[in-house]
Amino acid sequence: MARGKRGLIAAAVTVVGAVTVLTAPGAAFAAPAPAPTSSATAGPAPATNAELEAVRKRLDTLYREAAAATDAYNAADEQARRQSAEVAALAERIAEGRERLAELRRLAGAAAAAQYRTGGLPPEAVLVLSDDPGEFLDGTGRVRQGERATQHLLTETARTQQDVEQYAQDASAQEKELEVNREAKATAQQRIEARIEAARKLESQLAQEEKARLARLEAEAARRAQTAWLGSGILDEIDGTATEQGEKAGESATEQGEKAVESATEQGEKAVESATEQGEKAVEFATGQIGKPYEWGAEGPKAYDCSGLTSQAWAAAGRAIPRTSQEQWQRLRRVAVQDMRPGDLIIYFGDASHVGMYVGDGAMVHAPRPGRTITVAGAGSMPILGVVRPAAG
């Protein structure tokens, strides 16, 4: 019996849900079963709006999970880089310590040889056997100096040996942690790729007309969220007046992107009116990347993920900030939403898995998700967790 488009989409949503479960941390990966093919001659019926809304929500879930996994990947990658540098530094210290130890042992051998040449007698006995009182007194000072030098040599040798052993232990511990973070990176990468592939597979079930309708549903959902956010009067609290530009910030991503590119200079000038000098530079950098593709794990210059864009924007402004959106939320100074200004970072969703940069007038710039480009969107088009301010002071 023929199976229509609705059946295909329902099956795809079910399969994607199974992939989400199967790719949870600690679970084994399994390839989804292929959707049954239709043997009917009639074309499949178009999906209803309700079915497309279910697809939209499933895609949103998949891409959010991919974003969270991307944060985990970026955090593990950053930590692995630091640990690699520490391991390299420790290896250099071990090499230097071993060279120093070899030199100290050579000096100890030379001292032993010198003692052997005196006949093996203690220094005090050598002095007693001396016939020259002047030589005796002069020799007494040399012996004391020699004793101090010998003691220093022994102490330095022991300390250097301890240092080398400690460096080796530290290097071993760092290498173990490095391996843990490499495994964490690999696991996160698997989760990212599995979810993105599942999302693409789900989208591939749609006809072009259905993809267009899905895009309209996504834009409508963002518009409703932005309208509700603006309707709360929040923009009046932020900059005094709800401008027409702020209201337009909730329009579709494509229209926003086109308008942002066409009026980038004007928009940039308005965005930085109340920002600090650092904030101005960060906004200038971020808006200058509009149109570049999203790529998970990327920090530019050709592509960015959401936190890659914000961290590089603030780096361009002269301030280093954490690499991931979750660390940005945890470590940067928090400010009230009504107090945010251009350059501040808006953290989204309860798990802090997404971040955008406020540019003023109720809008933000961000790298949305795979398959999309950096664009301007309504600051309230997604659930806001909070706002952080990288600017000093």
TrEMBL record:
Q: Does the keyword Coiled coil apply?
A: yes
Q: Coiled-coil annotation: which residues?
A: 52-107, 185-227
State whether keyword Hydrolase applies: yes
Gene3D superfamilies reported in the protein's UniProt record: endopeptidase domain like (from Nostoc punctiforme) (3.90.1720.10)
Look up the domain of life of the source: Bacteria
Name the InterPro entries on file: NLP_P60_dom, Papain-like_cys_pep_sf, PG_Endopeptidase_C40
Q: What SUPFAM superfamilies would the database entry show? A: Cysteine proteinases (SSF54001)
The signal peptide stretch is 1-30
What spans are recorded as compositionally biased (Basic and acidic residues)?
245-278
Pinpoint the NlpC/P60 domain residues: 276-393
Keyword entries, A-Z: Coiled coil, Hydrolase, Protease, Signal, Thiol protease
By its UniProt entry, which Pfam families does this protein fall under? NLPC_P60 (PF00877)
Q: Where is this region: Disordered?
A: 243-278
Mind telling me which PANTHER family this protein's record contains? Answer: NLP_P60 DOMAIN-CONTAINING PROTEIN-RELATED, PEPTIDOGLYCAN DL-ENDOPEPTIDASE CWLO
Q: Which family does it belong to?
A: Belongs to the peptidase C40 family.
Protein name according to UniProt: NlpC/P60 family protein
